[in-house]
Amino acid sequence: MVGMNHERIKTEQLTRGECWEPPADELPPDALRFDPSEFSSAADFDAPPAATVGQAGRKATAVETKPVIPTSRTVRELVRMFPKMRKVSIYGLLRIGETVNIIAPPKTGKSWGAADLAIHKATGRKWLDNFECEPGLVVILDNELHGETIAHRLPQVAEARGIAFDDYADKIQVVSLRGHLCDVYGIGDVLKQFPADELDGALVVVDAFYRILPPGVSENDNGAIANIYNEIDRLAMTYGCSFCLIHHSTKGNQAAKAVTDVGAGAGSQARATDTHLILRAHAEQGHYVLEAAVRSWAPVEPLVLKWDWPVWQLATGLDASQLKTDKPTPANRLEQCKAAILKSFVHYPDGATKRKIQEHTGRPTVWQQALAELLDAGDVVTCEIPNPTHKKADSGYKRVYTNDDDI
């Protein structure tokens, strides 16, 4: 599969029958699903009997046929069919059947945060003091950590939160895929080990997203990434669960980007998901700002968090709009200008006029101050520079080198 583009991957998926729904007459009666006439409310429609969902999903992978085309509905029919929104998994962030991305810089604690979320979801607590979770099974598909590491990390997080081991120990299932990697099209096979009804309403955490990319797929390929999210959607519908994908942001400062532009790779990852949650550095050292772009919720107010190993804590008294930037401070600008002036004398060892120096340094607003401080420090002295076209010499400046300077 190396070098396979997204069209080839799609073909492979279709060949295996994973994108197809069998026609109704090829399924047993109890496997027919999502017939609106059988449900009295949107809640019923969104959460059919889980065993039925599992049977239909697994039958679909074994039969190649034409895809089911959704029936057109009038707005009146839709309103009658769906009087309520989908059931909630995490209030303010995620509903059943949806996907949330959690994006943060590498090695900033996003996996610890995912473990924290898993424990709060499993026990029905409020995550980060803001997002109430409906209690339910959490399945962690971890392709980065060894089982030993996970076995120590989850209790550390729970202990920091004051959550007893027995409150969550049997409500979180962990599949350590380190050394047994599978791509996104193998996740369905991993989930088959669970009874279908057990996954109904569950949260499936995939950590990390980049390791479920099929061989040869670039995370910058919009079409391929969109197909991956299509597969995640199919799995969520098949099992009646939700997905949380842990991913990293690009290198460098993220402050100038829109929320949906944060995240390494193709922009389709932010467009295809239902909630795009990001962490980026706050101006205050050790603090980060949580922001989220959501699809089926009201806008989320940014939160300032402090990394207090092994958990993120809500920070108060800080302005969430004050993101860390790479803009130089006035002091930094002054030092940079002084360094540029000294460097310019490499071209003029016998001295240079102010105009010549400025040709190499530009005319920053702190130029005069920088030159004055260099004169006061004795790093630069005034001098006379012969002018062949005039009898009078030009006023200029010359660098004073010490034994510690590179000449």
Structure explained in plain terms:
The chain has 407 residues and is α/β, with parallel strands linked by helices. Helix content is 31%, strand content 18%. It is built from 13 helices and 15 strands. It has helices at 6-15, 42-46, 50-60, 75-81, 110-123, 147-161, 165-168, 187-191, 222-239, 268-272, 330-344, 354-361, 367-377; strands at 88-90, 94-95, 99-104, 126-127, 131-132, 138-142, 172-176, 203-207, 242-248, 275-281, 287-294, 303-308, 311-314, 380-385, 394-399. The protein has a nine-stranded mixed β-sheet with strand order 7-6-8-9-3-10-11-12-13, with helices on both faces. Mean pLDDT is 84; it is low at 1-6 and 12-63.
Features:
15 strands, 407 residues, disordered N terminus, 9-stranded mixed beta sheet, alpha/beta, two-stranded antiparallel ribbon, Rossmann fold
State the gist of this model.
The chain is α/β, with parallel strands linked by helices and 407 residues long. It has helices spanning 6-15, 42-46, 50-60, 75-81, 110-123, 147-161, 165-168, 187-191, 222-239, 268-272, 330-344, 354-361, 367-377; strands spanning 88-90, 94-95, 99-104, 126-127, 131-132, 138-142, 172-176, 203-207, 242-248, 275-281, 287-294, 303-308, 311-314, 380-385, 394-399. The protein is elongated, with a radius of gyration of 30 Å.
Task: Annotate the secondary structure layout.
Blueprint: H1 6-15, H2 42-46, H3 50-60, H4 75-81, E1 88-90, E2 94-95, E3 99-104, H5 110-123, E4 126-127, E5 131-132, E6 138-142, H6 147-161, H7 165-168, E7 172-176, H8 187-191, E8 203-207, H9 222-239, E9 242-248, H10 268-272, E10 275-281, E11 287-294, E12 303-308, E13 311-314, H11 330-344, H12 354-361, H13 367-377, E14 380-385, E15 394-399
Helix pairs in contact: 1-9, 3-9, 5-6, 11-12, 11-13
